[in-house]
Amino acid sequence: MSQHPNTHLIDVVCANCGTYHRVRSTAEGLSIDVCSNCHPVYTGVARVAVGGSRVERFNRRLALSA
Predict the structure, then answer these.
(1) Is 1 part of a structural domain of the chain?
(2) pLDDT of residue 10
(3) Residue 17 domain-assigned?
(4) I need a surface site. Which of 3, 19, 35, 57 has the fewest CB within 10 A?
(5) Alpha-carbon Rg of the chain, whole angstroms?
(6) Would you say residue 31 lies in a domain?
(7) Helix, strand or coil, per DSSP, at residue 42
(8) Has residue 58 been placed in a domain?
(9) Could you read off the pLDDT of 13-43 as tens digits, one per residue?
């Protein structure tokens, strides 16, 4: 008697771009929101928030109060 679940190959479909990924799982089917083909970090389209560091913000507030 085995304590491990039965796994089989399934197609995971990305809801955003429609790409199929073949993986082994215990589930019958799986849908994901974002995959590595359309995620901004992996595709190089990610925007970096430029807000400055805490030290810069502190110095700016200190200069305004003086």
Answers:
(1) no
(2) 94
(3) yes
(4) 3
(5) 23
(6) yes
(7) helix
(8) yes
(9) 999 899 999 999 999 888 989 888 888 777 7
